[in-house]
Every structure is written in structure tokens, then in C-alpha cells.
User: Which sequence fits this backbone?
């Protein structure tokens, strides 16, 4: 039993929590989410660099339905996710125990959301070099070429909405794409509808995207749609100075400063 | 933090004793520093009235020199130099055109991000607040702390505590065992640049300063500006004429007073160079 | 199936000359859903309107499009006309073919076509319009006034005399505010107390006014017409009903050396005290910080001497709940501390005082019974210097704005001094003399000419003490900046007027906006000066900006009339063009996911949380709800809501989509 | 013949709509290629509307409302401003030519500015030509051709 498993074993035995959302090895040792309720099952839990899936996507449903406290394995993006979800009133942080994992025997435990915020504040949201390069190359294209590039990418889209399902912040009861009066997004997976869907998705992530790549990882046809939100993270940093997560600072688009930049306005 | 000191012209001439006391106090408190290599005049009081560009370029060359030498902090004991350097630094940082202009004249890109300190705040922040220094010979004297103008004005540039009623020197004096008096002339002008061109005015203004200090029972004046020192120390004969009485109150540089409290020998502090003898210390 | 009538107006030549109205009518008639279309010379004229009404009846139209001038001009006219003919007014839209078409384009095909497009757009919109009923909000006819200074007093009396209930809450033990501290008032030099105290008594005696003194607002809920206020009545330690106000306790109280706030700390008061003789209510308060009993547990002399046994040492704060329909903020102002002016030596030198302190010196009821005496030694000053703008108009160290009242009260002070010390010498350092007001300039002139007050235009650089005198060093800029030195016996600083302390906290508590100086902001700087952005909350007096007495009083009456207007009906009607959060059948209840970010986006605090319960009352979902009483219909929340759960009536998403499509697909016509 | 772009203007009721009214009352002429849709406030304007307009065949879009601090609803335009700043960045990155969207503050008193803005926009859109790229995607392109 490694430290992490031991810890989970203890909190389950002591009934401090009744459910632990973590990772376990799935087929071909690919980590998959594990929902542990029995102390004896805690051996199944693993944590390694392959564990990138943002588990907070399960918080909404499982927290509300689970009697008692829930513990969850969290990576840095997951921590941001917890802050954002809390600020959007989607989770009850009171009955949540967050296990910030660095390795299977190095981890930090939080039961105070403010402590999480303190930690996250210190960590700047950074775009990994691989994607920054991609963003750069795309930005260098002419506007028409850029459009061509995305037309091609989006043409792959089959509107399966896996990106939506994988994103912890896509929790709407009824997604706008399901509204047909009026038809916000053309439903068939044709070029226009795909453009509308991906632009809308990105805009809804403005100032909220956790930079966790869950969406891109989930995409069965490998559309680099995380580039859109990553680009926005960069853009927002430039235009509004900072990109942070907070329980009560309000959302980028629901707040304003009288002296915000307005470079584009004549 | 690598520290450089910019003496400027006065501290190598009329105010040698100031530089001597600054150096020895820094050494005594083992604060390492180096002189800004190949430094030049800051343009002082004249340049910015005569040639705007020159008044920008001269100080920026000093700043650049200090930065090129890998310094992160720059101590400027002379209040006039401090004022100029700070002004120019602000200009460069706030105005792209100025920055470009200066950079081209220096033909190098100047960042001007170095921290520029005046002596007073430097001593408070980097000495009294950081180390606990032992003052073996407390200066049991009633002192009048005189700031003059260049140290405290304009507030937007020098950001020196309360421009009308600064308190830092007083705090320092208390630390070294002296008793600062409350008086009215601590930021009045001494006549400064007129010292050569219109000694009359200088004498008149300086006289008022000294008179008030004496009336309020000060035993010595503490200054942090070579110009003030010159005027208050050197112009005594004229001052005494104006006040129609002997004026024997000595004028010490801040660092000299500190030096004395640290038990440094008066000679090493250049106290023997003053016009008005600093007696019985 | 929509039956829409289109009415094209020639507006005489205004439209007719450039747009082929007949053709527009003809083409419009082909639009789907249009059952009738006609052009006419003047639609807004009486026959024009009759034509519309007649057609509505004949064709039994469900919607109407009037293509004419700007809706900002005649929308109300036509909506009214149509509703008289039985079409819901919100089924009527106007196509602006005058301001946006005929007046800005040349005669020709294209211009006519544009007119058709605009009509088309509106036809499509009307198809998506829904009949709306104007919103009725019940109004509780009682007003809460916060602050019992002259502004609060005036507002209360006006509202009460109009026959409505008023609850007047005052933070201090007595109403009266700053005005009660003043000696004489400019420009008439009549005694402040003499004109104020009768009004204070009126407040006490008016049956419609409930005065709650020594109290503060604890919390506020609700919205215009329907506020719920919790008021904390601080423990007075005295039973107000039992107390007759005989004042015996105050004469017997042993701790007598407590600086009196009313006298700006220039006199003393006892621990059990009435702030000033004419106080309303005239019931004492025990200041528990300074009362011997509360400090060491012994004394109780007041209890012993009290003839009616009214002392209540164990009294506790009391929370009073009130339901009101409107609120008037009259929390007034404070004078700025002078600590950022160390060079003037306030606090260092006893004889450097503020204008308000001078008022107390000059007041017959003040610590010196009206003699101007130096606080330090009680001597009558032979030379006095007034420094105007001590903090005002000084972005570097004080505040940017002009405190407005100082020029006048400084002139008054100098005058009062000269009247009381005829051979004394008064000088005023000033920047400008701002004496704009009825009889104000004349007043200042009188000070200069008749009372020989020296006005010196220039700033004071320093005040310091030297052998018992205050040396005032300044410059006379009218003499080319000549340095001036005055050896004064007393210096009076015209300190700036600033927001009363606690203003910011109060503003946040009741959600009214405030400026960088913590003064409450009006709804519109010109056209809605006594309203705040929160419907039902109004402003009176210096809590809005520094003001003199007449201004405060007129603003107070203004606010009062707004409240009375609101109370004139038991219901108020509002345009139904407001945002609505959708509701649907279980298990969804509403598509709102309850992120509540819209709450921070709403400028009017109109969005609240609503718990949706099942029939057993179990909370199924917490979602956003727009309060129709507060929503002003800007639609910011609508555009912000990610799940499009909020829509706005009259500018709904469906309407906008229809407009866009219609405007761009003109191949149909 | 010269290409006549289709330009939709999304404007707020209190400032720009009134401003455009003033253009009319002062009889200042401008191109009739621009048609106005009226909103209560710029804060109301959903970014999806812009996409819809392009999809429906618009070649250019104007979005305009009250100057900062003049908003009838005190802060709607501030919210809008942030929205547009972010949206513009995204559109650029996706390759939707942000030169085709013109943002502006026009007060009820700036009738002349409105005419000027319209004419400027029409000119620049004419230079850019019809927005076929997006219209192709939207499938609205052919229709445009037929009705010329």
C-alpha cells in the first residue's frame, strides 16, 4: 500500500468520507476514473503522470447524490476547476475533501477552499510550449488561411459533444445547441453548425477555461479545439492583465473595470 | 543586491567630508558597494534650465553605467544628484519617446530599472530596519533635522515620506540617541544654487533657518545635501551680520552624526573640514 | 396565424418625397403574414389613427407595423391607438423609414427598397412578438428616511404632511445634524438653531413621523414599493417612555470631563448626556465607554437621582423591523481630518481649529457662550487667519473637488469675528471666491468692504508657533507671489466636506452606487438628480455631494415629492420589457443551471436566487429569478447567460433572429 | 456596377439609435447599405447574433452604443466592451476577418459621427469585397449570387 492508498484507506475506514473519486488502472494500464467506497478497494487506486483526466467533471452529480463527504484526486487544473465550480455555485465545498496529488506518495490535502485559492493564486496559468508553438504558427497564417485551417479541422467534427461531456465547466442543464427556438446552432454536423458550435463553446469558456485539455483529449476525431480556449487565455492575459481563478471574484464577462482596454472601439 | 554609489561632483570637492563619512559608515556596517565606473556630472541645477536633452542624457548615462556594471541598487548621497537621477529615471520609464531618444544618444538600450536611493531612506530601510546596529557612542544632543527642498520635492518624483513634514531623519536621530527638535524650517529653501550668483539671498534664507533652529534649542543641524551644508556652514559671516549675533551652531551630515554614534573618529568622518568647528564631541 | 397590418406614412413630403410609399405598401402586402397594407399622408394625425383603428377592427388584425418616423417619437402614440382598438400595445412595432431612411438617402429605387426591408424586418419581429401586460407592483405607503439632519428633517416633514407614514432613523442621540452645530447662517446671518429647532419639534410632534434616534440600519431586503428594513436601536440605557427629560441625571453625573462631540471636542459633557439643550428627543443617553458604572461596576448615581426611575443599565440593542415602499438617504457629510496637512499644525497647535469648531466658538450655546476665545488660553484673538480650501481642490494631498460651502462660511466666520471683536484683524487666504448663489456675492462683498476682512489670494505654505504666536507663511499671488507672513493668534482651517463615515458600508448594504469619494451617485447627473440607480431609493442633501442648507433643503423636498409621487397610487405600473428566467416542467424546472454569474452582471441587483420545490416542498433546484420590480430591461444578463435561460420581453432572441434574417434575405420581396 | 455590401448595425436605443435619428433630423446623407437593428443596450447584444448575421449573408457589421460612463443602464456597455474585446480575439484566431466588424461609441448627439462611421464602413467593406468565404460555409452564398 503506498501512502496515497493508505490515506484513502484511513479516511474511508474512519468514515470521514464515504466516497473517493480517484484513478485506477484500466485496460493497457491506462488510468481511468475510480469511485471507491470500500476501504478494501483503496488498493486499486493509482496516481502517476498519465493521470491527466480532470475528475472534477464527476463532482456535480456524484457530490449531490452522495450521502456524506466526498474526497477527490486533483491535479492543478482540477484545483482551478474546483474554485471555478464553487464560484459558479455548482458544488458544495463543505462536503468536499481535495487530495492534490503530485505522485503516489506525495500529496496535499485540502478541506478549505480558501487554502486551495491561496495555492492556485501562486500558480500562473501557462500554455505548454507545444501548444504555444501551434498557436504561433496558426496566428502567423493570413486570416483566410486561418479560416481554411479551421474549416478543415471543424469539417471532421461529428457533433458528438464529447468535448462538452469531458469539460467540468460544461454543466448546463440544457445546452444552447439543444435549443431550436430560435436555432442558435445549426444542428447537423455541417460546416456552419460546426463553426457556430466551436466558437460558442470557446466564448462560453472565456475567462473560465481551466487549461486542462479534457476537451481535446476527449475528441474522437482529434480536433485541436483546446487551441481556441488556450489562445483566449493568452489573449485575455494580454487584454485584461491577469487570468486567475477565485471563489468570489466573479467571472470575466460578468464583471468589468471602467478603464478596461477598448483598443478595437472607434 | 549589488550596490553602487554615485558621488557626483560635490562629494569629490566641496563636500569631500560627506563622501568620506558615507564610505566609512558603509564600511563600518560592512555594506559592500562600488563607485559607479567612469561617472559624469548629473547636470545638477543648471542643465535642466538650459538644455532639456542634456539634462536627460547626463543622468541617464550615469544610470546606464551603474546598470551595465550589474548593479541593482544605486545610492546617491547628494540630494541634487538624487533628484536629477530620480527625475530622469521616471521620465525614461513613463515616456517611450524619451526612452528612445536617450537610448539613441547613449547608443545602448537603457532599462533604467535600477533602484535609486537617497541617503536618508537608504539608511532607514537598508540599515536600521535590517541590521540591529549598536551605537556605542549615543549622540546626546538636541538636533534640528534639515531636509531642504531637493530631497523632498517634487513628491511625485522623489516620493519622500511627507513632503511638508518629513520624519525619517528624526527617526534615525532617535535611534542614535539624539533628541530631534520640532521646528518650522526643516523643508524651507536655503538658497541653494544662488550660493555663488546671489550670496545675499542665500545668507538671508539660511539665516532664518539657523535662527529658528537656535531659538528652539538645537545644538546642531543635521543635513543630507552638500548644497545646504555649504550654505549653512560656509556663509556664516554674512549670516551673523544679518542676525547681528554670533552663530556657532555646527552643521553635520547625517552620516557624520551616525558615524560619531558608531564611535568612528571625528577626523575619519571629515568633521575637521567644516568652517564652523564641531566642538566638544 | 398572424394577421398583420402595415401602415406606411408619407409624413407629408418628409417620407413621400424620397420613398415611393405606395410601392412600399404594395410590396409589403406580399409579405407572409401581412393581411393588409396601406399608405397614408399623416398616420399620426387623428384621421390616420382612426384609419388604423378602423382597419384593425375590419381585418381583425393581430399585429401592426407602422412605417413612419422614429419609434422614439411616436411609438407610444400608435401603441395607445392600437390598444384602444383591441390590439395589445406590444404587438405594435414601428419601422423607422424617416430618420433612418427618407431623410438620409436620396430619392430612388434603393431607398424605397430599404424602406421595404425595414418594414419586412418589423413584420417578422411582430410575428414573434407576444402580447404583454404592463407590470403592476404594489406599493407600501411608508417611507424610511436615513439621517436626521436638515435634509432628513425636511424630507420627513414633506412626506408626512402629504399624509404618509415616515420612519426617521438618526444615528446620533438627537436629530439636527451639522446644522444644529452652526452659529449663524449665510447669507442672512440668522441664527441656525432658531430656524432649525422649530422644525425638529415639528418632527417630534408630527403623528405621521416615527422618530428612531440613536439607531442605524442593520439590513435591507426587497425592492421598490416593498422594502423590509431591519433597524438596530442602540441601547440608550434609558427608558425613553419613563424619562421626562428633566436632566437631573446629567447634572449629577460624576464623570464630567468627556470631550463633547457636539462642541467638536471644545467643551465637555457628562457620561449620561443630552448632546445639546434643544435635542430631539430630549432624552439622555449613557455613553458606556465613559460611564463609571460600566467601567468599574459602581456609581449608579443617575439611577439614584432619577425621579422617574428611567435608567436601564441592562438595556440591550433592539432590532426593529419595518416595511416601507421608499427610502431616502440623507446621511449627510463629515469634515475631513487635517492630518495630511502637517504644515498647518492642526492637532499640534491648540489654536489651529477647523471651521466647524469655529462655529461652536461663535455659537451662543457653545463652550464660550459665543465669545471668540483661543482654546489654548481663552484669550480673545486680536489677529485671526482663515485658510480656505484646506484639503479641497487639492488633488496632490487632499481631494480634487470643491467643497462648495467653504467660501461662504469662511466669509461668514470672518464677519462674525469682526462683529464680536470689532478692532480685531481678520485675513482670509483663498484660491478663488466661489459665491454663486442668491445674495452670496453681495455677502462676500460686505465682508470685504463693510467688515474690512483682508482677502489674500494665495496658498499658505506653513503655520508654526513662535513665542506664543502662530506664524502663517503664505504668498499673495495678486502681488506677483509676494511672500506674506502673518503673526496670528488663531488659525481657522476651512476643511473639506467629505462623505459621512460609514457611507460606503451603507451603500453596499442597500446596493446604491457611490463615487470615488464615497458620495452616493444619482441615477442621472442632470435629469435624475435625486434618484439612485436602485429604484425606490432616493437622495437628499450632502450625502450626494457637499451642499449648503438651501440646496440640501430643496433637494430634500425634491426627494420627498418623488416619494409622494410613488405613493400617489397603491400600485405602480412598469413597462413589461424586462428579463425573465425560463421555467419548465419537472424534472428540469428551468434550464437555468444556477451559476448566478448573472447576479454580478446586473446593474440593478434585480436578479435573486429562487428555490424551486416539489409538491412536498423539497428543494429540487435553485435558479435565478428576475425581480420585475427592479429589472430595468437592459438585457445584459440575457446576452451573458450561457444556457440562454434568460430572455427579455420585447427584444427576445427569437425576435432578434427574425429581424436579422428578414433584413438580410430581401429576395423574398 | 459597384458592389453594394449588406451591412447590419446592432445599436443601442439610447445613444446610437438616437444619434442616427439626429443624423436624419439634420438631413445628413449616408449610404443606404446599412440597416439598423435596435436593442435596449449594447449589453443585450449576444455575440451569436454577429455570427448569425454573417451566416445570413452580411458582408459587414456595425456594433455601436453609448460611450463609457454614458450607458443608460450605467454598465451595459462596459460588459459589452469586455465581450467584444474577447470575441474579436477569438474571431481573428479562427480566421473570421474582424475588419468586417466595426465597434464604435456614438452618443445621441453625434449624428454626424454616425453618417461618417457608416460611410467609412461601407467603403472599407467594399474594399474587402463580399464575404463569400463565410457565406460559402453558411451555404447562403449561391442565393446571394442569384439575387445579385
Assistant:
Amino acid at each position: 500500500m503506498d501512502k496515497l492508498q493508505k490515506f484513502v484507506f484511513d479516511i474511508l475506514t474512519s468514515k470521514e468520507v464515504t466516497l473517493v473519486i480517484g484513478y485506477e488502472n484500466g485496460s493497457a494500464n491506462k488510468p481511468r476514473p475510480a469511485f471507491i467506497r470500500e476501504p478494501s478497494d483503496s488498493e486499486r487506486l493509482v496516481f502517476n503522470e498519465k493521470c491527466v483526466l480532470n475528475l472534477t467533471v464527476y463532482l456535480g452529480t456524484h457530490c449531490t447524490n452522495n450521502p456524506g463527504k466526498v474526497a477527490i484526486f486533483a491535479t492543478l487544473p482540477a484545483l482551478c476547476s474546483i474554485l471555478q465550480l464553487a464560484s459558479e455555485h455548482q458544488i458544495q465545498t463543505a462536503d468536499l475533501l481535495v487530495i492534490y496529488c503530485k505522485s503516489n506518495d506525495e500529496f496535499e490535502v485540502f478541506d478549505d477552499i480558501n487554502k486551495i485559492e491561496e495555492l492556485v493564486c501562486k500558480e500562473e496559468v501557462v500554455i505548454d510550449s507545444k501548444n504555444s508553438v501551434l498557436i504561433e504558427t496558426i496566428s502567423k497564417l493570413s486570416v483566410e488561411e486561418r479560416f481554411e485551417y479551421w474549416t478543415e479541422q471543424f469539417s471532421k467534427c461529428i457533433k458528438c459533444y464529447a468535448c462538452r461531456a469531458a469539460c467540468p465547466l460544461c454543466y448546463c442543464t440544457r445546452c444552447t445547441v439543444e435549443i431550436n427556438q430560435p436555432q442558435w446552432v445549426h444542428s447537423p454536423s455541417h460546416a456552419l453548425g460546426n463553426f457556430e458550435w466551436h466558437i460558442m463553446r470557446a466564448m462560453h469558456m472565456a475567462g473560465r477555461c481551466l487549461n486542462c485539455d479534457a476537451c481535446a483529449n476527449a475528441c474522437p476525431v482529434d480536433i485541436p479545439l483546446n487551441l481556441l480556449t488556450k489562445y483566449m487565455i493568452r489573449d485575455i492575459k494580454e487584454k485584461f492583465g491577469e487570468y486567475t481563478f477565485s471563489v468570489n471574484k466573479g467571472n470575466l464577462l460578468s464583471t468589468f473595470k471602467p478603464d478596461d482596454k477598448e483598443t478595437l472601439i472607434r | 543586491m549589488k550596490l553602487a554609489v554615485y558621488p557626483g561632483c560635490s562629494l569629490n570637492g566641496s563636500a569631500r567630508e560627506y563622501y568620506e563619512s558615507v564610505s566609512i559608515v558603509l564600511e563600518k556596517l560592512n555594506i559592500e558597494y562600488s563607485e559607479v565606473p567612469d561617472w559624469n556630472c548629473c547636470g545638477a541645477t543648471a542643465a535642466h534650465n538650459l538644455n532639456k536633452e542634456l539634462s536627460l542624457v547626463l543622468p541617464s548615462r550615469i544610470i546606464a553605467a551603474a546598470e551595465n556594471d550589474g548593479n541593482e541598487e544605486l545610492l546617491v548621497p547628494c540630494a541634487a544628484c538624487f533628484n536629477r537621477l530620480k527625475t530622469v529615471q521616471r521620465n525614461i520609464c513613463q515616456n517611450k519617446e524619451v526612452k528612445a531618444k536617450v537610448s539613441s544618444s547613449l547608443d545602448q538600450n537603457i532599462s533604467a530599472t535600477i533602484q535609486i536611493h537617497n541617503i536618508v531612506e537608504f539608511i532607514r530601510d537598508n540599515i536600521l530596519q535590517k541590521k540591529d546596529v549598536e551605537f556605542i557612542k549615543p549622540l546626546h544632543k538636541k538636533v534640528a533635522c534639515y531636509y531642504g527642498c531637493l530631497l523632498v520635492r517634487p513628491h511625485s518624483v522623489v516620493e519622500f515620506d511627507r513632503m511638508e513634514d518629513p520624519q525619517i531623519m528624526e527617526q534615525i536621530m532617535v535611534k542614535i540617541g539624539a533628541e530631534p527638535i520640532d521646528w518650522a524650517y526643516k523643508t524651507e529653501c536655503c538658497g541653494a544654487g544662488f550660493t555663488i550668483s546671489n550670496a545675499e539671498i542665500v545668507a538671508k534664507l539660511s539665516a532664518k533657518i539657523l535662527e529658528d533652529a537656535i531659538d528652539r534649542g538645537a545644538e546642531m543641524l543635521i543635513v543630507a545635501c552638500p548644497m545646504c551644508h555649504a550654505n549653512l556652514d560656509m556663509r556664516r559671516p554674512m549670516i551673523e551680520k544679518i542676525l547681528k549675533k554670533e552663530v556657532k551652531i555646527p552643521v553635520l551630515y547625517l552620516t557624520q552624526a551616525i558615524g560619531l554614534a558608531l564611535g568612528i573618529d571625528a577626523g575619519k568622518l571629515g568633521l575637521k573640514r567644516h568652517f564652523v568647528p564641531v566642538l566638544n564631541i | 396565424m398572424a394577421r398583420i397590418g402595415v401602415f406606411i406614412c408619407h409624413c407629408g413630403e418628409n417620407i413621400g418625397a424620397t420613398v415611393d410609399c405606395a410601392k412600399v405598401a404594395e410590396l409589403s402586402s406580399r409579405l407572409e403574414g401581412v393581411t393588409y397594407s396601406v399608405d397614408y399622408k399623416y398616420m399620426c394625425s387623428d384621421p390616420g389613427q382612426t384609419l388604423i383603428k378602423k382597419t384593425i377592427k375590419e381585418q381583425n388584425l393581430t399585429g401592426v407595423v407602422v412605417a413612419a418616423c422614429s419609434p422614439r417619437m411616436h411609438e407610444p402614440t400608435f401603441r395607445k391607438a392600437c390598444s384602444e382598438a383591441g390590439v395589445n400595445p406590444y404587438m405594435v412595432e414601428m419601422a423607422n423609414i424617416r430618420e433612418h431612411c427618407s431623410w438620409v438617402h436620396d430619392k430612388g429605387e434603393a431607398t424605397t427598397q430599404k424602406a421595404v426591408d425595414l418594414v419586412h424586418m418589423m413584420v417578422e419581429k411582430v410575428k414573434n412578438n407576444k402580447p404583454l401586460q404592463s407590470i403592476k407592483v404594489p406599493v407600501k405607503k411608508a417611507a424610511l428616511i436615513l439621517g436626521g439632519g436638515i435634509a432628513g428633517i425636511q424630507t420627513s416633514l414633506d412626506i408626512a404632511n402629504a399624509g404618509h407614514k415616515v420612519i426617521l432613523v438618526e444615528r446620533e442621540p438627537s436629530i439636527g445634524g451639522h446644522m444644529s452645530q452652526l452659529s449663524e447662517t449665510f447669507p442672512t446671518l440668522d441664527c441656525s438653531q432658531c430656524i432649525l429647532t422649530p422644525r425638529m419639534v415639528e418632527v417630534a410632534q408630527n403623528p405621521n413621523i416615527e422618530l428612531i434616534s440613536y439607531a442605524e440600519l442593520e439590513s435591507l431586503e426587497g425592492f421598490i414599493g416593498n422594502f423590509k428594513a431591519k433597524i438596530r436601536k442602540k441601547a440608550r440605557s434609558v427608558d425613553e417612555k419613563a424619562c421626562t427629560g428633566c436632566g437631573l441625571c446629567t447634572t449629577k453625573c460624576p464623570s464630567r470631563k468627556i470631550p463633547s462631540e457636539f462642541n467638536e471636542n471644545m467643551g465637555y459633557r457628562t457620561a449620561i448626556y443630552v448632546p445639546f439643550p434643544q435635542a430631539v428627543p430630549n432624552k439622555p443617553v449613557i455613553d458606556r465607554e465613559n460611564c463609571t458604572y460600566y467601567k468599574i461596576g459602581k456609581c449608579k448615581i443617575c439611577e439614584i437621582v432619577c425621579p422617574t426611575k428611567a435608567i436601564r443599565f441592562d438595556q440591550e440593542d433592539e432590532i426593529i423591523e419595518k416595511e416601507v415602499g421608499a427610502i431616502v438617504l440623507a446621511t449627510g457629510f463629515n469634515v475631513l481630518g487635517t492630518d495630511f496637512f502637517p504644515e498647518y499644525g492642526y492637532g499640534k497647535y491648540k489654536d489651529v481649529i477647523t471651521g466647524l469648531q469655529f462655529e461652536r466658538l461663535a455659537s451662543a450655546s457653545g463652550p464660550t457662550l459665543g465669545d471668540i476665545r483661543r482654546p489654548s488660553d481663552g484669550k480673545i484673538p486680536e489677529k485671526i487667519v482663515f485658510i480656505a480650501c484646506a484639503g479641497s481642490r487639492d488633488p496632490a494631498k487632499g481631494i480634487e473637488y470643491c467643497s462648495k460651502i467653504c467660501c461662504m462660511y469662511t466669509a461668514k466666520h470672518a464677519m462674525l469675528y469682526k462683529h464680536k471683536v470689532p478692532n480685531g484683524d481678520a485675513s482670509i487666504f483663498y484660491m478663488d471666491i466661489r459665491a454663486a448663489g442668491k445674495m452670496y456675492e453681495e455677502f462676500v462683498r460686505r465682508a470685504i468692504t463693510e467688515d474690512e476682512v483682508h482677502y489674500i489670494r494665495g496658498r499658505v505654505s506653513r503655520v508654526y508657533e513662535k513665542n506664543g504666536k502662530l506664524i502663517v507663511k503664505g504668498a499673495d499671488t495678486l502681488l506677483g507671489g509676494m511672500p506674506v507672513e502673518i503673526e496670528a493668534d488663531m488659525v481657522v482651517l476651512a476643511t473639506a466636506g467629505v462623505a459621512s463615515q460609514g457611507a460606503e458600508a451603507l451603500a453596499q448594504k442597500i446596493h446604491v452606487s457611490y463615487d470615488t469619494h464615497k458620495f452616493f451617485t444619482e441615477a442621472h447627473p442632470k435629469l435624475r438628480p435625486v434618484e439612485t440607480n436602485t429604484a425606490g431609493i432616493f437622495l437628499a442633501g450632502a450625502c450626494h455631494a457637499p451642499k449648503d442648507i438651501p440646496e440640501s433643503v430643496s433637494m430634500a423636498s425634491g426627494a420627498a415629492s418623488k416619494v409622494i409621487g410613488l405613493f400617489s397610487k397603491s400600485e405602480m405600473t412598469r413597462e413589461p420589457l424586462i428579463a425573465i428566467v425560463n421555467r419548465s416542467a419537472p424534472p428540469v424546472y428551468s434550464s437555468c443551471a444556477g451559476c448566478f454569474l448573472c447576479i454580478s452582471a446586473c446593474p440593478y441587483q434585480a436578479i435573486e436566487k429562487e428555490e424551486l420545490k416539489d409538491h412536498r416542498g423539497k428543494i429540487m433546484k435553485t435558479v435565478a429569478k428576475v425581480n420585475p420590480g427592479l429589472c430595468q430591461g437592459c438585457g445584459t444578463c440575457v446576452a451573458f447567460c450561457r444556457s440562454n435561460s434568460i430572455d427579455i420581453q420585447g427584444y427576445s432572441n427569437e425576435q432578434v433572429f427574425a429581424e436579422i434574417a428578414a433584413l438580410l434575405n430581401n429576395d423574398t420581396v | 456596377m459597384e458592389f453594394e455590401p449588406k451591412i447590419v448595425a446592432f445599436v443601442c436605443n439610447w445613444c446610437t439609435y438616437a444619434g442616427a435619428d439626429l443624423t436624419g433630423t439634420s438631413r445628413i446623407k449616408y449610404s443606404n447599405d446599412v440597416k439598423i437593428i435596435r436593442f435596449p443596450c449594447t449589453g443585450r447584444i449576444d455575440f451569436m447574433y454577429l455570427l448569425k448575421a454573417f451566416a445570413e449573408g452580411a458582408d459587414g457589421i456595425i456594433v455601436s452604443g453609448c460611450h463609457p460612463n454614458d450607458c443608460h443602464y450605467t454598465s451595459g456597455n462596459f460588459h459589452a466592451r469586455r465581450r467584444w474585446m474577447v470575441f474579436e480575439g477569438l474571431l481573428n484566431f479562427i480566421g473570421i476577418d474582424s475588419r468586417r466588424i466595426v465597434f464604435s461609441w456614438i452618443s445621441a448627439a453625434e449624428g454626424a459621427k454616425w453618417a461618417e462611421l457608416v460611410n467609412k464602413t461601407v467603403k472599407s467593406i467594399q474594399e474587402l469585397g463580399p464575404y463569400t468565404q463565410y457565406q460559402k460555409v453558411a451555404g447562403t452564398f449561391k442565393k446571394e449570387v442569384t439575387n445579385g
Chains B and D do not touch (no CB pair under 8 Å). Chain B has 13 helices and eight strands.
